[in-house]
Amino acid sequence: MLRSPVVVFAARAALFLALQCGICAALVPLAYRREQRDYLAATIDKHARLDAQRGARRLFIAGGSTAAFGFDSAAIEAATGRAVTNLGLHAALGLPFILAEAESAAGPGDVVWLSPEFHFYWREPALSEEMWAYLCARPAGFADLRYEPVKTLLDHGPFQFAGHVARAVVPWLRFGTKPAGKLFARASFEEHGDMVAHVGEQPTRPLKLETDVAPIDENRLRASLRLLTWVVRSCEEKGAEVRIVLPALHEEVVRGFGGRVERVVAELERAFPGQVIGDAGSVAEPDDHFFDTPLHLTREAAKARTQRVLAAAGIVGGEAGAEAARSGR
Amino acid sequence: MNFCTATYFVFLAVVFSAYWALRDRRAQNWLIVAAGFFFYGWWDWRFCSLLLLSPLIDWINGRLIGESKSPLVRRLALLASIGYGIGLLSFFKYFGFFNQAVVDALAAVGVTARPIHLDVILPLGISFYLFQSLGYVIDVYRGSIPACRSFRDYLAFVVFFPQMVAGPIERAGHLLGEIQRDRRFDAAAAADGCRQILWGMCKKMVVADNLAALVEPAYADPAAFGGARLALATVFFAFQIYCDFSGYSDIAVGTGRLFGIDLMRNFNHPYFASDPADFWRRWHISLSQWFRDYLFIPLGGSRGSRGETARNVLVTFVISGLWHGAGYNYLIWGLLNGLLVMPFILWPRKRSDGGSGGQAGWSLAVRGLAGTAATFAAICVTWVFFRARTPADAWSILTRIITDPGLGTQSLFTGNGRFGETRMILIVLALVGIEWCTRHRDHPLGVLAAVPRPVRWLVYTGIFWAIMYSIPSATSPFIYFQF
Fold first, then answer.
1. Which residues does A56 contact at the CB level (< 8 Å), separation at least 6?
2. How far is the alpha carbon of A244 from chain B, nearest alpha carbon, in Å?
3. Structural domain span for residue B470
């Protein structure tokens, strides 16, 4: 039976597939080495900082690049008396991954500021190139895939991962793709995890402004809110305090979305009463506050916005301010 | 379940192993049924009941037709199947279109009506498996094949997973025969089937998916691009839809061979066609033949006067256009193809040897090349209507191609695909070259059968990693899944 044609054929096919898996496994360390210098590898430093502060009074921020560009963590640290880490990195990682990362990191006594980009609430999550780059740089992140749609992960995950490894190892074949540029590298962040490489650089103009006036996908909105609720409750069960911080968005884009932002804010306020920092009116920022996209604030604008966020959160300064804020809720 | 996913290959490995572990053809057919429902249910389990009901109705009607001596009963059974199939398609596929068409027609005469709003999900592959099942009933009625007594075998014929959702639309006389005979494992055929699957994946994931990323921006916002770029996007779309659909068919046929079942060839290098009629003998062959045998010929075919033949050609192509989608642009696409094909049916010409690969003089070769180029250009014009969102968009694209021949400043490449315009042009040219050189084979990778195994595996590995490397960040579903 072992010599039957079917068994021989199946054995050869299995051997071929095993060979490809072996090639992939052999390439992964090379891909890992190559990814260490890239922008997404900054997650290693951010998590190292967070882990080093375990046991201390921590506050960390989760979100995409809007969060990376959008906060002055040093000011938050001074106002709250907590060790602050900005985990914000790239929206392409997707809402499920970013929330899972926050949930994994949260511990007793932590304050968690979730600041996901608005489009997460109406766009279908998808596995992205950036996610695989992140996972190549920080393999521990594989555990944070737990909220990805299982079918999507099973269907596309293996091939996309293999593809990313191939492209990471042979970057000189990456023709046709735009290079990230020197601004987006692992060293682009300051010690708290805030993006600072753009300080002193010429802002990009004109900005590419998006509009979308189609009715919001209710199923997607509900699914996103369900996931957010789940993660918030999970963090709270672990003893963390969670706040939803509304991210900044270009005023033209807010208008161009035709009420979507207002709708999302209203739903967040309904789902998380007293936990949302900011309101629909505080989201929009003028054009000159943005650097290269309608999501990325300049450093000066981020500092100013942080002060407004602290005031909205009732954190007027130091521990006394934080205590006053909590008792006033 | 999508063919180009890891899940599919795990599924395929499990089904393949179980299939050949079973010695009995009946057990194998039950496995084919179970695998078909699992495959379909992976997309949406709610429509599995429809997948069971539709073949059941046609099988019962087939038995009635085959076993009844009453012409009235036989005719009623046939009409019941046709009515059920067309009715189901009309509801799921055309409700919105006809609903809006009625509202528009009433508005044209000054009557205001509100369209009935129904959120209808189009079941995956409904156009394919309904046509396949309907073809069986018609063939039984005509006496071409006997009625199938086993519902298990009939169900396996309809839900055989490689071809269930996007063809080839098999004839019962062929596929049911394959289902009903004992199968023996043929290692050489299975190996070639795997090569064909690899080639299909290459066409889909390297070529079609990356072309899709270049075509989408142009057709989403044509005004932003120069006419030459819109023309390039249209040519890209011609190869996108070819590689997408023929790639799917290659994977389907290759998969069938793993199970000892031969599926029909669905594409025969359509862009090498010498004229539009030849194109439609090479493109989506199973659908063309279905419409020829079950619509064109019953209407009278080309047996009547030239006027009747012209009418039959146009009706067939318009309905074929609507089969592809419920929209005026598909209707126009079908009509245009009918008009292109009509002269070659009304005044058939002898096919030149240059078109079939025999000895040809230079003038024949040049005429053949000119005919091929002209046919390709004409088909590309029709593709504009197929791809554009509306007929108005299609018209504006065509006029822009003629009136604004410049490239414009905006590139088709937005970073969504892996390769830019120039690289994709080179890849498409390489594809055309490979297909031309191997045009007498079922698929180009068939040449590897004669090569020593280490070299074969090296080539397979290279192709596999080229596919992995080329996967765009956003993969697109097979185009014909939406039909």
1. A83
2. 29
3. 189-274+351-482
A123 assigned to some structural domain? yes
The ipTM (two decimal places) reads 0.85
Distance from CA of B419 to the nearest CA of A (A): 5
Tell me how close the Cα of B198 comes to any Cα of chain A, in angstroms.
13
- Mark whether B222 and B96 lie in a shared domain: no
Residue of A151, A122, A322 whose CA lies nearest to A241:
A322
* Identity of the residue in B7, B415, B474 whose CB atom sits nearest the CB atom of A178: B415
Task: Please tell me the total count of domains within chain B.
Answer: 2
The token pair at A14 is 């299995």
Nearest by CB to B457, from A5, A16, A159: name it: A16
Taking the Cβ of residue B70 and every Cβ of chain A, the question of whether any pair is shorter than 8 Å is answered with no
CB nearest to B413's CB, from A9, A151, A176: A176
Which one has a higher pLDDT value, B90 or A14? A14
Which residues, numbered 157 to 176 in chain A, qualify as contacts with chain B under a Cβ-Cβ cut-off of 8 Å?
A: 157-160, 162-163, 166-167, 170, 173, 175-176
List of chain B residues whose C-beta atoms are within 8 Å of the C-beta of residue A13: 13, 194
Q: What is the pLDDT of residue B374?
A: 94
Q: Residue A241: give the domain boundaries.
A: 42-158+177-327
Question: Are residues B415 and A8, on separate chains, in Cβ contact within 8 Å?
Answer: no
Select the residue of A13, A126, A167 nearest B469 (Cβ to Cβ). A167
Final residue before a domain boundary, out of B164, B183, B202: B183
Q: What is the pTM of this model?
A: 0.88
CA distances from B282 to B285, B296, B380 (A): 6, 17, 16
A252: in domain: yes
Q: Residue A163 and residue B464: Cβ atoms within 8 Å?
A: no
B464 touches chain A (CB under 8 A): yes
Residue B346 inside a domain? The answer is no
Please indicate if any CB of chain B lies within 8 Å of the CB of A180. Answer: no
- Average pLDDT for residues B128-141, to the nearest whole number? 94
Alpha helices in B388-440 (DSSP H): 391-403, 421-437
- B258 band by pLDDT with thresholds 50, 70 and 90: very high
Residue A245 phi, psi (nearest 5): -100, 120
| CA separation for the pair A193, A47 (Å, rounded) | 10
Determine how β-strand A276-277 pairs with β-strand A241-245. Answer: parallel
- The answer to whether B20 contacts A6, with C-beta atoms less than 8 Å apart, is yes
Residue B379: per-residue pLDDT:
97
* Residue B269 designated active-site: no
Contact between B25 and B181 under an 8 Å Cβ cutoff? The reply is yes
Residue to mutate among A128, A177, A178, A184, with most B CBs inside 10 A, is A177
**Percentage of chain A modeled with pLDDT above 90:** 65
- What region does A55 belong to: left with phi over 0, alpha with psi -120 to 50, or beta? left
- Report the residue from B185, B418, B474 with minimal CB separation from A6: B185
Q: How many domains is chain A partitioned into structurally?
A: 1
The most confident of A154-163, B42-51, B92-101, B189-198, by mean pLDDT: B189-198
Identify whether residues B408 and B431 lie together within a single domain: yes
Q: Which of B122, B105, B33 is nearest to B482 (CA)?
A: B122
Q: Which residues of B touch A20 (CB under 8 A)?
A: 461, 464-465
Length of chain B counted residue by residue: 483
Average pLDDT score over residue span B245-262:
95
Distance from CA of B87 to the nearest CA of A (A): 30
DSSP for B295-345, please give it.
IIHHHTTTSS-HHHHHHHHHHHHHHHHHHH-SSHHHHHHHHHHHHHHHHHH
Is 70 exceeded by the pLDDT of residue B60?
yes
Which of B183, B210, B229 corresponds to the end of one domain? Answer: B183
Q: Do both B26 and B121 map to the same domain?
A: yes
Distance from CA of B10 to the nearest CA of A (A): 10
**Average pLDDT for residues A100-107, to the nearest whole number?**
95
Task: Count CB-CB contacts under 10 A for residue A164.
Answer: 25
